[in-house]
Write a structure and sequence with these properties.
This protein is an alpha+beta fold and 98 residues long. Helix content is 47%, strand content 28%. It has 4 helices and 4 strands, in the order ααββααββ. β1 and β2 form a beta hairpin. α1 crosses α4. It is globular and about 35 Å long.
């Protein structure tokens, strides 16, 4: 499947979350999360976040909602990874598995 189709699946995940959150929480925490990649062979979805703080907050408050949305769009056995911008100036990222 083309990468563009996976990006559309992620956008549907965001819509799923938007329908279940108030506008401020969605806009602050879920909308900025962007699709990075999907490994179809390994069933691994990677999403990009702007900071480690965002990762911690999302995992604490929205993990269940995100996993429900992802399971619905990508299937129940998808592994979720985050690509976190660790150093904005040098554009250094780190990957975190959930």
């Amino acid at each position: 499947m083309a990468d563009n189709n996976y990006k559309l699946k992620w956008e549907r995940c965001q819509e799923y979350c938007k329908a279940r959150l108030d506008e401020q929480h969605f806009t602050t925490w879920i909308k900025p999360v962007s699709y990075s990649s999907y490994n179809e062979e390994k069933h691994q979805l990677k999403l990009s976040l702007l900071s480690h703080y965002c990762y911690e907050y999302i995992e604490e408050h929205y993990a269940h909602l995100l996993r429900d949305a992802i399971s619905q769009e990508f299937g129940p056995n998808v592994q979720l990874f985050y690509k976190i911008l660790a150093d904005k100036e040098n554009r250094i990222t780190m990957d975190v598995a959930t």
